[in-house]
Write a structure and sequence with these properties.
Radius of gyration: 31 Å
Strand content: 35-45%
Oligomer: single chain
Number of helices: 5
Number of domains: 2
Largest sheet: 7 strands, antiparallel
Length: 362
Amino acid sequence: MNQPKTRTKYLHVSSQHRLNSVADKADIKVHLSQPINNVYRVAVKSFTMANAMFNIRSGENKLEWVEFYFTGSTGEVPLHRIFSITIPAGYYEAEDLCNAINAQILAMPASQHVVSSEPDEYPLSMTFTQDQNEYFINLATETAVEDTGLKYFAPLQTRHTIWRLLGFVDKQVINTLKRKRETNFDDVKVEVGINARGEVSDFYNYINAIHQAGQNGSSTTFSSNLPATIESPKGVYLTSDALTTGGTYETRTHPDSLHLDAMPQAILEFIQFNKSRYSYIHYNATLPHYHYLNDTSVHDIDIQLRSENGVVLTHSEVGEYNLVLVFECLVEDEYSAEFIKAYNRYGYDLAHTPEQVIGLQK
């Protein structure tokens, strides 16, 4: 198939020229005073921003966990409650993040940090620290429950929580994105009861995620599987509804089957942060990621900056950026197909008049 004849046009976008809004979202709308017509395909030509964005950002700054409590009575079903704290957006090194988490947990009123029907004087004590030699995160837990009571906890990983940044991997958390739709954590409570009876084995799904808290002055420690990795984000996605047509797919865990599948997404490009913090990220496409627009006229476009989790970022937490888009536009023929056909027909008719035919016969 022959490549269509195209002409190239460029659009330079500076985030400094955006319309300021209270929301401050990195979601820019651009109106073209002169539309770009007959767009065959579009790609990100270049992108520049400073690698200085926050690593704890709005919408992705929660720490969630679930606690289980029961008195130890035979046949009792453990009670549970989900807890969460919100870390102020900003840039944190691992030790600073541990201190911020500890302060938030310590500030929780005792009446709001107990499982239903559990006495108020028995909130779970949780202390995060970083190993300064190998940089793992250690979580020490303790509770003052009565001798017959038991307290268990498990990290709860949703799309926007920060356990991954602390080095905790899938097997160490209850990942809500990879769970069947169980009611009221009933499946997990079964494993908590098995833990309490000392019958734990590698067969159970959450053996590495469910931990019994220490009691009465004796704490237990739960350590991350990997060192903390919060210093620099992986990168950002550039997305656009106007400039994509479903030709780019992204993987996900299917919510029903839990299989790995892929869905069309409005992804223009993923900008990888391959420079150290406080350096500038300069992306220049050697092999452009083209999006085919099928001879579209472009009047208005949208551009979003999203985190690696798909959350739209904010300019105050990201900083300014510059973007160059390249449009390949179809070149219209100087004469239409109908004109060429009529012109050829006219030439044929002129060459085949009776006078011309008789002249040729002589």
